[in-house]
Amino acid sequence: MEIVFLLEQVVNGLVLGGYYLLLALGLSLIFSVGGIVNLAHGAFYALGAYVSLEVIKYFGFGASIFITPLAVGLLGILFERYLLRRFYTADPILSLLVTFGLAMVGEQFIRMVWGAAPLASTMPPEFKGQLLVGDMMFSRYRLFILGVVAVVMCGIWLLLHKTSFGRVVRAGVQKPDMVAVLGIRLQPYMTAIVMLGVATAALGGVLFGPIAVVQPAMGTEIMTVAFVVVVIGGLGSFWGVVLAALLVGVVRGITIHFEPAAGEASMYVLMFLVLMFRPRGLLGERIERFE
Amino acid sequence: MSAFVNQKYKSLWIGVAGLVLLPLVFQGIGLTLDAATVVVILAMAAMGLNLLVGTTGLVSFGHSAWFGIGGYAAALAQLHWFPGQMWVPLLFSVAFTAALSLVVGFLILRRRGVYFSLLTLALCALTFAISFRWTSLTGGEGGLGGIERYTLGPLNLDDQLTYYAVVAVIGLAVLYVLLRVVRSPFGHVLVAIRENEQRATFQGYDINKYKLLAFVLSASVTALAGALLVFLHRLAAAESTTVGFSGELLAIVVIGGMRSFLGPALGSVFFLLFRELFSMYTDNWLLWFGLIFVGFIVFSPSGLTGIWAQLRRRFQHQPEDSAAMSKRKIYEGLPLPEFLRPARREGEVLQAQGISKHFGGIQAVREAQLTVEAGQIHALIGPNGAGKTTTFNLISGMFMPDAGKVRLNGQEIQHLPPDRICQKGLARSFQITNLFKGLSIYENLRLSLQARHAARFNFWRDIDSYPEIHAETAELMKFLGLQGMEEVGGGDLSYGGQRLVDLGLALGSKPQVLLMDEPLAGLAAAERERVSNLVKTIASNIPVLIVEHDIDRVLSLSHRVTVMNQGEVLMSGTPEEVRNDRRVQEIYTGTGTPPVTGRVAGHAGDRPLLLNFEKVNAFYGKSHILNDASLQVREGEIVALLGRNGAGKSTLLKTLVGLVKPASGQVEYAGRNIAGLSAPDIARLGLGYVPQGRGLFAGMTVAENLALGRLARPTDGSNGIVWNEEQILHYFPRLKERMHVAADYLSGGEQQMVAVARALSGNVKLLLLDEPFEGLAPTVVQELFTVFDLLRQHVSILIVEHNLDLVLALADRVYALERGAVFHEGPAEPLLTRLDYRKQILWL
Questions:
Q1: Could you report the predicted ipTM of this complex, rounded to two decimals?
Q2: How much is the pTM?
Q3: Nearest-CA residue of chain A relative to B762?
């Protein structure tokens, strides 16, 4: 019985990891192309959750999964065009400060529009309940989330590795000068990637609205976790982030089972440990600008 | 310097005035006394944070952690261990936080930049998690109540005004301490770390110690503020540890002004006023505050005090560079200052033996050795890729050699970090200007001299109480010819001035041996003369090792020369021996025997002009690389660009292609003016570029690399030729089996083929090749040579190549570049066939 329960926790941990993965991936994408650590990422996640609540009222949950990320993604385009772009070549500290400030602004904006009290978000009825797999019980909704995350992750990987668009992005990350002399203007690609990163954060908000607490500070809360994942996995490493997300999810899940109050603290301890022994993360690359 | 005396403690008097006026003004506008106390507390916390952010350049997103820890420590101390007391818990909280921050700082300061900042964020979140959830310790959500203030002698601290006064006095004391720290040698090193961490290390400062102390000090001050707040509210709560509060502290620092000492204090006044006044109108005052924060970062990162300083500058005249330069007094022919002369030594001072280093799979340096003797100027020369810069970096401590030993006066130094090497007596200057650009020249040099002084870690005494350091700085400035320009900022100097300061920084380390990396690069003739004379004067006391491309100058300057080629030492001897040595001449000018079979140059005199590159000037930073450079390329010809390293050949190609913006001059291509166009636009007009090192994209296959070549350029052949896949395979059949192999795994020759094919995958009329034959086997060289030869009928080629035997056989005409200007232009054939003529033109 114990082993089964433990396995359940591991799988739930993987679900949790999938949760973090969605956000961490978007972060990592934005970092790869622009060299900027987007501390405002959580604000887009929170916005996704709140906007989704509005969209659900008119179009239902299913539609919200597509509409909300798109809408917030458009905001992401403005974000890139008018804010982020100024800081690509600036002192990295300034880009950290500005995105941090934007996160503050985002949280306050949400508070202004929707109020400070937590909002209720109901789970779509099709996903309520449990699913029995052998001896193990899993929440249907969490499995659904895991499925969506897997699809998105595959989609992003395919986009980056099997399409022309992805090739340009990967080339631009390595050698922007070389890309330019091949006649390719890199700026629109960067805008698109930022939009994609922001949209995945918003999708996270849509998916996790029903099971998380929808309140203005939810962005900040998820951000620290997302950063732990990205730092453990290594800034700019796709598989590192995947591995780290799953690791954090599992560690956190198991810790919560044994000592609930220590759940949050456990992943910070994990992060400090990883950083002490593998400074650039599990599979991270050396990014000189940030040293 | 007497103006300083009033300046020095100006902040203190402003602080006193502010603290006296604050409660009066606040009560006047209807705010409470407690609000004034909060301002002082926040100011304290913000100034503590600014020691880290503004002074040292380390951004902490988690300072609320220390604020909270200080508060909880004081509360817990009073509740459990020192009931009935206030001052002991206060002291305890500071001591505890100092100890904790020492441990934490030791762990997280090992990571720099972004990682450090993210770690502080995690620390903050962790602290919040603990405060919020460890209810038995911290009271959880409710916090720890029941904290009392008690009395101080006859003063009842429960009275609002009394408590304000006490907090104000403590605040003033903190201000005084921070002022002393900032004015101390230690404080000045923190600023140097912020400006240029690498250079600070090379000047002999063990920066980790400095950062750690700054971290501990910063955390302790903030913790004190946190404890005072707990006594104010009589409650320790988790709100103090939130990331949000960290953000507010950071915003206070930025809005007030990171670079100013009192900026954070101003920021906290602003913050509180804003909060109190705006919260009357709207619940969302923090939103507007956040927007102001973002606005400041985007438009005025130096905050309110920065705006104030800018306004002042409009009404007062600041010394401009030209005005400052006019105050400059140059003394020629001064001897080296006494304090810079090492104890006279004879024999070998620096000895490197068996030095080897590989990077990835490439052996950059193999078994290199050289010896520098007392009184000697020793030059290290060699063509591109010879390994001389790497050897130089290995000796000076930038990298550690894989094998071999470096001895300085008999002591082994190859395993030491750069700051220890400097302390042992080896100093180096840098080729790419590596100063503390935001600081004045005077400060730059003073920092270097300070590093060798026993008091360099002192954090209490004012730097003006070390007159000997000031005297040395003045004398060094006079020696360098910079007297009168003390206040000019490092970044505002001309290029020549910056190089002098760079040299001065190295000299200021009072070295036993001085290493100079291309000291003459990019200097105008007069400056080159002055620097050479300086080097000669220095060398009469301190032996010098120079790496330099300007061979003529360095041969006439040095006593001994070591020549490197392809990672190994070729020979070492007197300048005369080197000048006349045939092997040395060969590696620079070739043997006269082309290694390939093939064509003979043709004439293109009557064909239409394709490219007219006229009087172009280009800069790299302040270094003037292209100097009225001019050349022309006609249709159907191959033109070679020759010259030694540093002559500007690669920069010329990059300017042509749009990666470097020309400062002046004309670039006319196929009848269009392309100067100033972006690189993608120029590429689409038919310029193909194969850079040095090929520029293939790692992690992508040959096919994918080629696809990127086709993506954004026209491929219809309307303005030039273009190769489709069939043609690529026709010219480079070898690539057929390699189509789906990742570019990283190809041989050098195959990579070069892919690079050329990729460039030709879009319409190309003018093909630029930068060192295409570098590192290739002879058979591959022959293959490529034939292909380029065949291409001549369809495409014009401009090729940079240092293998003269090879490129002279390929090209129709040549241009030879030296210091950014063309000094010879003509047909390739005579240079190819007559070796003595070639040497006459191209060798010294």
A1: 0.87
A2: 0.87
A3: A182
